[in-house]
Design goal:
34% helix; alpha/beta; 403 residues; six-stranded mixed beta sheet; 15 strands
Amino acid sequence: MGAITPIGLGVNEFWAGVKEGKIGFDTITKFDASEYKCQIAAEVKGFDGKNYMDFKAAKRMELFSQYAVAATKEALGDAGIDMEKEDPFRVGVSVGSGIGSLQAMEREHKKLLERGPGRIGPLLVPMMISNMAAGNVSIQFGLKGKNINVVTACATGTNSIGEAFRSIQYGEAEVMVAGGTESSITPIGIAGFTALTALTSSNDKNRCSIPFDKERSGFVMGEGSGIVILEELEHAKRRGAKIYAEVVGYGCTADAFHITSPAEDGEGAAKAMEYAIKDAGLKLEDITYINAHGTSTHHNDLFETRAIKKLFGEHAKNIKINSTKSMVGHLLGAAGAVEFVACVKELEEGYIHPTVGYQVPDEECDLDYCKEVVSGSFSYALSNSLGFGGHNATLVVKKYLED
C-alpha cells in the first residue's frame, strides 16, 4: 500500500496520524484565499516530487500525477514486486482522478488571456488530462498491462480498486496497481465547490469536517493519493508476498436522480452495498463495520444513513460506522482509495478509528458513528463512496487468514 495524505506522507505516517486522531485542516496556503467564503482545506504538507522520482520526470507532471507516482513507488516497494521477474503485460494500472489538473488549466488560461494563443505551453493537454496519473504510473514503473482511468467523481478511488479487482478475477492481469489521486485546492476548485454550496461554511479547523454531526455544514477539500497493489492470490503466495487483506466484494449502482444530491431514500447506495455483500457471498449480519462516504454535507450523511438503515434494517444499529474524512477531508477522486487503506489497517490491527470531531447527535442520523475508538477483532470492512452524477460504489475487504 502507498499513501500521500494531509496527515502523513506514506502509509505508516498516515496510519500514525489516524491513531492520533490528527486533523489535516488549516488555512489554505496554496493561494490567497482571504476573499473566499471558504478559507480552509486539508493540504498535503512537505511533499516534494523530486524525493520520489527523477527531477525531469517530476517537471513533466502536475501534482495529481506526482502524488500517484509517489504513492505507487511506496506500494510497489511494500509489495516487493520485482518487475524483472514479472511479465510486464500482466501488470496493469487502474488509477483514477476525478478532475486532473486545474492548476495547468488556470495557469495556461491566464497566459491565453494576457499573451495570446501562441504562448500556451505545448504540454498543457498531457499535463492536464485526468488519465495522465495512470499513464505516468505505467511509464515510471514499466507496467504494460491493462491501463485505465476511472472517473466517477468522488467514487473514483473505490471504482478504480473495484475495476482492478474485476480485471484480476476475469484473468486480464495478475497484478494491478489501483487507487486514486487528486490535487484540486486551487482558486477555481475552491470557488466552484463553494458556489455549489458543497464546502463547509466553517473556518474553525476543529469544527469544519464533522461527518454525521448535527452542526455539519459541508465538506473540506482535501488532496493526496491512495494506491494499493492487488494481486491474484496464488501469484502472491508463489512469491511469498505479505498479504494484508483480501478484496471479496464490489458493487456499483447509479441513483439516476440528481447531478449532485444522492437519492433521498438512499436506494442507490443501499443497492451498491447489497451487490458488494452478495458478491462476497456474505450475509448482511456479517458486516459489523462500515467506513462511510461521510462527507459532512447535510444531504450525504443523512441519505447515506438512510441507505444503511434501508439495507440492514434492525442490524444497522449493531454496525460501527466511521468517516476517515473527519481527519483528512474529502480527497475527491482519491477519497475511496485512502479510505480503503484505512480499512485494511483497521482490519489488520482490530482498531476502528473514531469519527473525529463528532459531538452533536443529529436526530435523523441515529446510528453508531464511533465517537470513541473501537478495539477488537473483526473480519470484514465495507467501504462506501458516492459521487456527483449519482455514482455509488462499495467494496468489501476481508481480513486475510493464512491457510
